[in-house]
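YM 10:42: SH3 domain and tetratricopeptide repeats 1 sequence, as discussed on the call
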Amino acid sequence: HDPPPPEKTNHKPSAPCSVCFDWCDCCAVGSALPMLLTMVEGPGRLPVDEDTQEVLRGKLRLLQPDSPEVIALFTELSSHIHSISSEENTILLMFKTFEEIWKFTTYYSLGFLDQCMESLLFDQKFWIQSLDRDDLGIEVSVPEDSLHLMVKGLLMQEGSFFASCSSNQIFDSSTCGGDLYLEQGDVAQFEPPILGSGWSVLSLNDGARGTTQKPALEPLIPFYQYVVPLYLLHPPPPHISLSLRPGPVPPSSPTARGTCRALTEYHGQGPDELSLAAGERVAVVGRLVSGFEWFLGRAEATGALGLVQTALVEPTDNLCESTDIYLDAEERSFFCFKEESIIQETTALLKKNSQSDIGYVYKLGRTEIPLIRSNMERILAPCRAPSPHRGTQSETESAADPVLRAPPPSPPPEAPCFTVHAPVEGTPDGELFTPLLSFLEGAPYRREFAVLYGATADLLSSSLFAGHADEDALVAFLSVARETARKRRLHWAQSRACFLLGLQCAGRSKFSQARVYLEEALAVPKEAFADVRLLAALYANLAHIHLLQKNAEKYVAAAERLAAAAMALPECVASAKDHVAALQYALRKAVLTRNKMAEARACFVLAKCHRLRGEDEATLPYVERLLELSAAAAAAEEGGSDGVPPSRVCLGLGRIYGALGRPLLSVCAARRAASEPAATLGDCLGALALVLERRDEVSWLGGGEGALPCHAVTYLRRALALGEGPRGDGGEEEGEGEGERHALSHALTLCLVLNMRGIALRRQGHLQRAAESYRAADDICEEFDDMSNWAVCQANFGLLCLKAGAKTLAERHLTRALELFSGLEQEGPGLQLVHVLLELGRHYLEQGRLRYGQGCLEWALLLAIKAGLADSTQQLCRLYGEVRPDQARCIVYNEHQLPLLAAQGDRSREGDVLQAISEQYLSLGTAKAYRVALDCTKRSLGIFIDLGQREQEAYAWLQAGKIYHMLGQKELVDLYIQVAQDVGLITGDTGFVLALLEAAGDIFHNSSQDRDKAVCFYRDRALPIALKTGSEASRLRLCHKLVDLLLSLRRHDDAVEFAQTALDISITLEERLSERVAYHRLATIYQHLGQWELAEHHYLKALALCPAPLQFDEETLYYARVYQTLGDIIFYDLKDPHDAAGYYHLALAAAMDLGNKRAQLRLCTRLATIYHNYLVDRQLSLCFYQRARAFATELNVRRVDISASQRQISRR
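YM 10:58: structure's back
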């Protein structure tokens, strides 16, 4: 999971590049691109402290490259994960095609990668806890050199690409006798060598070709690689240059507005061109764009509108540079939304998600989210009432329609449908065409013409005209109408009829005939071409026809004129395909002339055109590029530009991402929109609405059913700051509205405040004052019959009583809360009810009422299954594992916990639960259970490795080794234990290593096989560490285990040392029980070694440490056995019947206290033997003999032997 990143090499490759067959570094293709993640905060985006960086590293360890969330994210980012290096905070990415890396670099430049990584790596809890930290987030950085190298390599894989010359160069010409010369900055198409040949070069200025061995070039940015080849369908004629033309605007000023002056007299070549006298002033309509041949102007003297050649005018004092991409409020409406609509829709979404306005806030002792409805009403109140201090732009934006969000809400009125009549004899032809010509006549543009100018041949035939049998009949009808208009001198009707005829002929692939009609429409004599939209439609169709007929010179001329109209009045561009094709020329020229303002305007016009056609995928690259240019322009102007802010473009981009099924990028665009400095209240609420709409599609937004995602806090705080800003004098209406709203929500707000105050006081320990607040809130809820919030008040009161120790009162309030929640029909209080049941279940368990506790917890489980909560399942596992043991149920509930924890992404708890399941299966003691336990252990091991939790990982390795030992697969046991030791040593924690070695020894110590291996772990590995660290408790424990182990192995000589050490440590630590055990074991060892006096001494020491009086039967049994052992040692080994009789008497007394008749039989027999054969006391001998006979009869023992040969009986 964490392989080392590929080493960066700066040396020359050892062989020629397989792509370009040259000694270069373009072999970055196929390598991984490192993406470095850093936690930053503050406006300066400075790195945070090391502890927070370690949190990021921990999250990276959790990241699973094959998880659905990660795959979905990086698929949207058009990249593939190669590996993750958590220690270096790096994700290595790979790209297969140029399109993938183009999209990735776009998202990187727009800042979407930062937000994607933040949302992917950190859960809602982290962001809620970090709200007090200023702009805490993740900053993603990519090595520019590596990225540039990879882009270059992928471009070369494509076969050819476009680049600018980084120096003046001469190429061997392949099309003419002279050499091809390109200056620094010139753009050309380059093709890498093939089979050892040189580079091929195609000049974009004149189409000349050349070759060279190794050119000096700099590839164009990915967007330009998409733009230039798409629009370069045919190279321009040799005499048409793409360099900047001389004119009134210098190259340093991309666009200008104002007035200019004619240099010479000029007579227009047609009604679309403006005729000028020398020195005549011309007002620029829209923008005059540097590098373009034409612009749209209006003569100040006559007011005539037409096209003007840029080279024929010079600047005046009123001509100034323009840095605004957009022209007026009408164009800005493309990215602006109705403020009132946003407010209403966002409020509706918040109501839908919050479900219960106050009940959702009344968490059980939690203060998570403020009252959604009330606060939103306060935030939005200033925006709903009109204020005299609001600017003109805001009013315009409020009236605008969200073009990017949906089609225009008020489309142009439909053009009337005209009936095609065949000529009727005796009827004047003019009467048949009067309705059509009346509609087509008129110089100014009318809204009815919008459908006409954007129509196709099929639309003309099916919708605008009816009654014709076929297309020939329609063409004949329009031809007669055109001729009638010409005879009546209805010039505008004639022009529009010619336009319709041209569309119809083009639709039938009669392009030459169509070109004749369109050129006639332009040439019809008119005083001025007042309908610019008709002019744009004519030039768009002409450009398309010239392109199809491969007439490059006329295509460029028509496209230049259309570009002038589009740059001046983009609303004149229709959604027809012909318009799109012609506008692409304008964008390409803006790119090649490096005119950023013209490029932005062309992107805007093309985005609008594609959007009107419903082509979201085609719209996307233009809007993304427009956002980059808008952000750059806004940064350069430092907020001084009066154009559309980037936040509006971000919102539009987010809508497009959502429509294309890319919810992650949609949310990222919304987050950026809300975080822009120039964002307005409408932007923040629009971004919030976008996030709420995409919540079901993005898993990490979370929030649960009936809850808002934590990301909503960012937008709400931003909206609150904007809503509570300076309001000015809002007038009496606003004050009255605020007073009404305040009066309406006063009671509910008071209830909310009382509840929150009670929570705060309870946490501070002021229980009496908290109780008073809860009681007051409870009374208000009861008065207003607000059942859901009343239930929460009762629950909070119950929690307060639990903390105060009033168990009975707490049970009463929690039970009442349970009744109220159960009576609610809505689904909103489901999560609240789960919390109440868990608290009540814990209370019942603490009181020992297991049935009630079990019922509450299982009820909570049923409610929590749908919500995906793991808390209730955890409580049930504790119930059946500790309080009321039930192994089968405990396993079932633990296994049910696993998918819930996996869904929550809590992998640490998931690993712990797997370990618990493994232990439970091990306790079943069957081979099948052992194999299930092994599987669980291995799954937890993988989790701990990913998390970097070395201690848990080491224990998991050890657990797996233990299970293999229990399964009898001895060849794997030593391997797993060794790996566990190696991982333990990595931690550097001596105490942990000591505990791990001891646990490894326990595997063999507690087994019946290979027990001698435990000696190695205890004596040779663990004990030296315990001695070195001075851990006396560990030394004592290890010595006890060693003594027990050596005794079982009958290695009594080795056991003496450790038994004595255990005794010494026990005396030092004053551990009386341990001291007693040490004395007993020393006595046992000395007994086996035949050192009877020492054995007797240590047995007596052990007995002296026993408590007096005796408390348990086990202690009495210990007395009986030890005294019998002492009697046996004295009687059989030391040959002292008198002292032996004393020990036997003490043992008999203990046996009589226990009521153990078999032990009494054995002791009475031995006493009878001693008194009969050695002490010669006939009376006592007879007494003990009779008692022995009585026990023998009762226990059905046939014979009691008290002869001297009894000495030879083996001890029992």
